[in-house]
């Protein structure tokens, strides 16, 4: 039944959303790429929300269902028929009656399989596009013929731009830069490269009262420089998200100082490098939202460089949807993990490659439930514990077990009733 109803509901949602976009004509910023879309989307919405009546995708609503939900201003109805009735009512109200609708939408868009973004682009056409990263081995590659095919699809919103429209890409991503060079757009770049429009430098941990409390950097545009501070989360990935927001501000002619001031109100999404207090005086880096080779590399470098750590512990789950690249990438990341942490703990069948086979006392778990029970008393004073894995592995269970204050569960991903029901 689901197979029959899903395309019907997708068509209905797309029809409503397309009609709403045509009626109200909001300016649309699309955020695409393999890594960091949600953080970047949130940072951009924080900045542009100072000038526009803006609406952003909630959580990671980036599919042919999630994008219409955002356009219609509704939550995910899951399998609730009454909630679906509310979605239909909301769509009809927007189409048939006058409404005070946002004049700007910041839409995160993503693809799990070929054609996903083409379906989204039939619903809405972007006025500006922000591309995060297009790594060598992207997530979801198992559904495509090659990594190049994934990158081509993820970059495809840029092909829908009008001539001279703003296209924001990472100056440090060779794939994105090469693809952008083919287009007659207004190219704005951000990153550490010398020729970046928004040049980032001096990336480091932000400390308060002698403790790590986030990340900091400098951003420079045409000789003007501002300080970037992201509180509550760690990892170099936090800085590109805010730099991309500055680039989006530049695309909409918002002064650098004003954009930087707006970013003071930016809060990174849950499960993306969040710093949480762990048991026995430990500290948790909660990066449990999802996982891919490129993302694990970045957060492992953060763990390795983390100051004042007694032990650096990496609790790593399977990286899914890598297809024929899975074995090689798990082995490569495993070697990197062992070089970055004092202790590596594997969760999942594929993750066994993260732990050396001949390591005495190696800790391997088949699933996060068992790991959560066994690891709940692992923490010692001064430990820094990184927790990361693909969404289906449900690594947030381990984070919850490690929390010193159970009330901090509100800061974790996948705490909705529907996710808890699936637990």
Describe the structure in your own words:
Strand 5 (166-170), helix 7 (174-180) and strand 6 form a beta-alpha-beta unit. This protein starts with a helix and ends with a helix. The chain has two domains: 2-265, UDP-N-acetylmuramoyl-L-alanine:D-glutamate ligase, CATH 3.40.1190; 274-422, Mur ligase, C-terminal domain (Protein-Tyrosine Phosphatase, Chain A, Alpha-Beta Complex), CATH 3.90.190. The chain has helices at residues 2-24, 37-48, 66-72, 81-96, 116-121, 147-155, 174-180, 238-251, 256-262, 293-305, 326-340, 368-375, 396-402, 417-422, and strands at 27-32, 54-56, 104-108, 128-131, 166-170, 186-191, 198-208, 211-221, 224-231, 274-277, 283-287, 312-317, 343-347, 363-365, 384-388. The relative contact order is 0.11. It is of the alpha/beta class and 423 residues long. The model has no long low-confidence stretch (mean pLDDT 94). It has 14 helices and 15 strands.
